[in-house]
Amino acid sequence: MNDGADMNGGKVVTRFAPSPTGLLHLGNVRTALLNWLFARKRDGRFLLRFEDTDRDRSERRCMEAIERDLRWLGLDWDGEARLQSARAGEHAGALERLAEAGHAYRCFCDASQLTLDRKLAAARGGPPRYAGRCRRLSPGEARRRAEGGEPFVWRLALSLRNDGARSGGAREDGGDEVVVRDLLRGEVRFNRRDLDDPVVVRSDGTFTFLLPNAVDDAADSVTHVLRGDDHLTNTAAQVWLLERLGLPAPAYLHHGLLLDADGGKLSKRKGGQTVAGLREAGLLPMALVQAMARLGHPNMPEDALDMASLIHHFEPERISTAAVRWSDDELWRWQARLLRAMPAGELAGMLARVLPGADAALASLIQPNLSRIEDAAAWARLLRADAPPQGEAWQAACAAGADFFRRALACWEALAAADWKAWAAAVREATGRSGKALFLPLRAALTGATHGPEMSRVVDWLGRDGVRARLADMIERCEQTGGEGQS
Ligand code: GLU
After folding, report:
1. Contact between residue 212 and residue 224 where contact means Cβ atoms under 8 Å apart
2. What is the value of pTM for the model shown?
3. Right CATH number for 391-481 from 3.30.530.20, 1.10.3720.10, 3.40.50.450, 1.10.10.350?
């Protein structure tokens, strides 16, 4: 792969740079995972950097939650997590240098002027962008207005204009084009006439993500940035400003976006599940990692079941530039697959929450039938003879009636050994029932559910007394409701 790792003595450095303004959601997980896989594949470093420039919205609580979620997912970072705010001095210095060289300027235009600009630009058939009015101000005048208390933002003098907006303090240089080198797309060329003058400092004095993000990447020696292609235009601005500052730009990989199941933007409101929410729903972290690692990476083999295999088979150059859709079904398919492959002892530990007293033997019994941990609650009767049967199971039992279970119990007592086949044959003989009419009520009585583990295994697990106790309980329940069934 032709990329920029050599700028750091050959050592790859990637980073995950969330804004700590909320919980980790699916889109973040993909970005974090891809950057983590890239670093681990290349034996490099993976950094965690909190981009907390939006101080009002950045919360310590969110940072802790993000760290907890990353750890839970198995995405470890190298060194301490960094805070973007710790480099505030460097960001201010970089802005000063850009301003002195005429690459950044103060803009005093208010919201209504900007709306008007966008409308005019759109009416001319161009992209909706800033008209460049304040680029004509001399630095001295701009400073006087700022000192006079007029509110302003800082913009980059990125756009090239033919309309005379180049006079004044902000100078244009660096050619007509900005070239972004992308590991998937090759050279992506931006004509500066199509670009806007992005805001780098808001009117409250805080930086937008553009400048600190790029300056920190250089300071952290980041060699590769993997992120969604919604950032491509931002990247053009960042490459341009890094060049102006004489700082190295990392290599970029812009992957296709992650969309929700309907093809819409994955928002926090719509299908934008949080990692914390999924964890509370009993999801295994590896199920999320597996579903995520395969999005836009279809050549990942099905049997790459652990982190080491995912790293081994990760091929960043084959990540799709097309948008991919999130699928809850795929997520839960992985959950089922991993639950079924897990050591029974480990599974038993997880079952304790929904099935107190579950041990490895019980876990191994119900494991082939589990898709979610919560499913296990349906088989409480395997542990407790008096656990009430589930709705449909209870209906099937009622339909069979107390007399059916009395006969089934008699057949059971008459057996020389606890043997499912022999018992089923005897009950068939004694009751005249066969097929579903025979098996369903027996299953209902023993397991409390209408489906589940093989009956021979259930009978072995419960043993003589266990089966007896469940049949007795079922007889009592049917008698209490007056159900004598239809034989
Ligand atoms: N803080 C930015 C974000 O959360 C980082 C983007 C990037 O990965 O460079 O969108």
Report:
1. no
2. 0.86
3. 1.10.10.350
